[in-house]
């Protein structure tokens, strides 16, 4: 049997010092899986999948794999699926972000090491899509991102429920004594009722939209619900396109031809217009960083000032991903943003964004969900970066999900030095705290013991919650779930454990927040800060071995996407 070298299973032979033997041995072994000689002549489309019993969001993935395979086979190529690790957001300790880079390495190395001419990557839960995009960017073979899609909503006493903005809303009411234990137990079973990712514009949904805005997914595929038949059709179409790329029937665009400075800027616009997750700025920075494309927070602010929030979804608005899909989804949003976008960017289909939008012109839109650019929810973007003496390299505030009456404010610091300290004291009846204070959390950044958890949504102290306080200024070097809301300043950089100014904050200090001026300042004089600096001990944990050591030794700060220093930059493949 003749197999053309460097195509399909003949690509990237195992090194035995004898290429003929290596090919003969590979063919022998793959034939044990029942393949015929004819089908082994075909180009291969790899399918990177990540189902796991520890990942509810990927529950429907096996069905998606079958649909991708159907598309590949029908187009005349050979589909071969393979597993990578899976990151189920709520199952990982200390936090899923810590393992995003591990998954990206798994994807990159398995895509590069195994014989495939193109790859379809199937992800969904928060960190999986960024990990796959990072890995694909580094491996740099033709790649298509497919997402599992969002969950449908549930119902409780006539109210629609969706993970996980409503999880937090109900928990806050429970903490404030507004509902009983019996009801919170009942709600627990109604928040996440189908396969798929969180039902609101959280991190998973934001990253699905960003993947499409970058051009890495099929047009119109980001918002299709996980259980909708269109989701399977999108999977089949992804397989078909990947096969056509592998067969030379479609342009075999590599990630570095799709992810460009212009498409990254388009993705930033989309993030801001969605009122999307704060986590997405970290992930987009990491994906772009793999291709040497910088994402500056100063540029984020410039773009934010000229990008309206248009999508009325929780946690910024009122609706759910199934509504966004029914309203017209990403196509509707991109059409509204058209004057602000780079239209000459190209997607995996080979079509430019301008060509796509021209073809979709006139399609129906529900403007209650995707507002016209002329009548936005907010005239400026959902995220803003703050700089100042407390955050020399920046911090992020999701202003679209915050209380604007707290935007220009000076407050007294109520300090928590760690997550443990926070959980021990936040509900202490003796805690000296008022609604005008700023809750500040240290030691929750990328190199802290907790690995930058989604702990920036500090709970309102229970005595204030019970008195009706719904929001306070909260500041930390942590992240926040994309499904959360409040006046919450995140990603303070450099972080506490890296010796940033946050490490010098003391209980009772004063901080000034000005969203108008993009400022976050610690109001302590320089002499006092210098004195404190001499007494501050490093809180960076000592990690002796394993992946945790690799992470600790190489993870970058939030403004560099929390990637590993040795993974940034152009592909070595
Ligand atoms: Fe997986 Fe929310 S827990 S997307």
Helicity range of the residues?
A: 25-40%
Q: Report the C-alpha radius of gyration, rounded.
A: 24 Å
Low-confidence stretches: none
Our count of helices gives 19
Strand order of the largest sheet: 7-8-12-11-10-9-13-14
Distance between the termini: 29 Å
> Helix/strand/pairing class, anyone?
alpha/beta
Q: Per DSSP, what share of the residues sits in E-state strands of 2 or more residues? A: 5-15%
Main sheet properties: 8 strands, mixed
Topology at a glance:
Layout: H1 19-31, E1 44-49, H2 61-75, E2 78-83, H3 97-113, E3 118-123, H4 128-139, E4 143-147, E5 154-156, E6 159-161, H5 165-175, H6 181-188, H7 203-214, H8 229-247, H9 255-258, H10 261-274, H11 279-289, H12 297-304, H13 321-327, H14 329-337, H15 353-360, E7 383-388, E8 391-398, E9 408-416, H16 419-425, E10 438-441, H17 462-466, E11 473-476, E12 488-490, E13 510-514, E14 519-522, H18 526-535, H19 546-554
Parallel strand pairs: 1-2, 1-3, 3-4, 9-10, 10-11, 11-12
Antiparallel strand pairs: 5-6, 7-8, 8-12, 9-13, 13-14
The structure holds FE2/S2 (inorganic) cluster.
FE2/S2 (inorganic) cluster (FES) binds at residues 57, 89-90, 125-126, 163, 197-198, 202, 204.
């Amino acid at each position: 049997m003749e197999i053309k070298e460097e195509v399909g299973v003949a690509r990237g032979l195992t090194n035995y010092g004898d290429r003929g033997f290596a090919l003969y041995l590979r063919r022998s072994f793959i034939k044990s899986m029942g393949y015929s000689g004819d089908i082994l002549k075909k180009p291969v489309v790899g399918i990177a999948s990540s189902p796991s019993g520890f990942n509810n969001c990927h529950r429907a993935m096996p069905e998606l794999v079958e649909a991708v395979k159907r598309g590949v086979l029908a187009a005349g190529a050979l589909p071969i699926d393979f597993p990578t690790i899976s990151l189920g957001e709520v199952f990982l300790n200390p936090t899923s972000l810590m393992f995003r880079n591990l998954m990206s390495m798994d994807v990159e190395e398995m895509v590069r090491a195994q014989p495939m001419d193109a790859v379809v990557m199937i992800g969904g839960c928060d960190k999986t899509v960024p990990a796959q995009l990072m890995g694909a960017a580094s491996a740099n073979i033709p790649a298509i991102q497919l997402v599992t899609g969002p969950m449908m909503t549930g119902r409780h006493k006539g109210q629609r429920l969706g993970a996980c903005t409503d999880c937090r809303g109900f928990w806050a009411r429970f903490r404030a004594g507004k509902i009983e234990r019996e009801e919170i137990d009942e709600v627990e079973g109604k928040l996440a009722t189908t396969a798929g990712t969180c039902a609101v514009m959280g991190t998973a949904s934001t990253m699905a939209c960003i993947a499409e805005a970058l051009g890495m997914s099929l047009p119109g595929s980001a918002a299709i619900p996980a259980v909708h038949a269109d989701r399977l059709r999108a999977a089949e179409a992804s397989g078909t396109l990947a096969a056509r790329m592998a067969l030379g029937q479609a342009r075999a665009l590599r990630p570095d031809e799709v992810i460009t400075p212009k498409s990254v800027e388009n993705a930033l616009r989309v993030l801001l217009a969605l009122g999307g997750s704060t986590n997405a700025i970290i992930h987009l920075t990491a994906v772009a960083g793999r291709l040497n494309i910088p994402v500056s927070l100063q540029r984020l602010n410039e773009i934010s000032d000229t990008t309206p929030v248009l999508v009325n979804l929780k946690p910024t608005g009122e609706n759910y991903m199934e509504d966004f899909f029914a309203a017209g989804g990403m196509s509707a949003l991109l059409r509204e943003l058209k004057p602000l976008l780079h239209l000459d960017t190209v997607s995996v289909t080979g079509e430019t964004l301008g060509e796509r939008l021209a073809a979709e012109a006139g399609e129906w839109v529900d403007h209650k969900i995707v507002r016209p650019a002329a009548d936005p929810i907010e005239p400026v973007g959902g995220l803003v970066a703050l700089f100042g003496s407390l955050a020399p390299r920046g911090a992020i505030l999701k202003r679209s999900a915050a209380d604007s009456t707290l935007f220009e404010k000076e407050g007294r610091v109520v300090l928590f030095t760690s997550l443990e300290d926070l959980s021990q004291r936040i509900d202490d009846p003796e805690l000296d705290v008022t609604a005008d204070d700023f809750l500040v959390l240290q030691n929750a950044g990328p190199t802290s013991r907790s690995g930058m958890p989604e702990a920036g949504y500090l709970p309102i102290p229970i005595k204030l919650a019970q008195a009706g306080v719904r929001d306070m200024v909260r500041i930390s070097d942590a992240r926040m779930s994309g499904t959360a809301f409040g006046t919450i300043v995140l990603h303070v950089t450099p972080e506490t454990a890296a010796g940033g100014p946050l490490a010098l904050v003391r209980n009772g200090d004063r901080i000034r927040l000005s969203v108008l001026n993009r400022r976050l300042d610690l109001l302590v004089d320089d002499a006092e800060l210098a004195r404190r600096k001499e007494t501050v001990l490093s809180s960076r944990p000592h990690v002796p071995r394993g992946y945790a050591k690799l992470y600790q030794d190489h993870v970058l700060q939030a403004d560099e996407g929390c990637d590993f220093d040795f993974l940034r930059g152009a592909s070595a493949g």
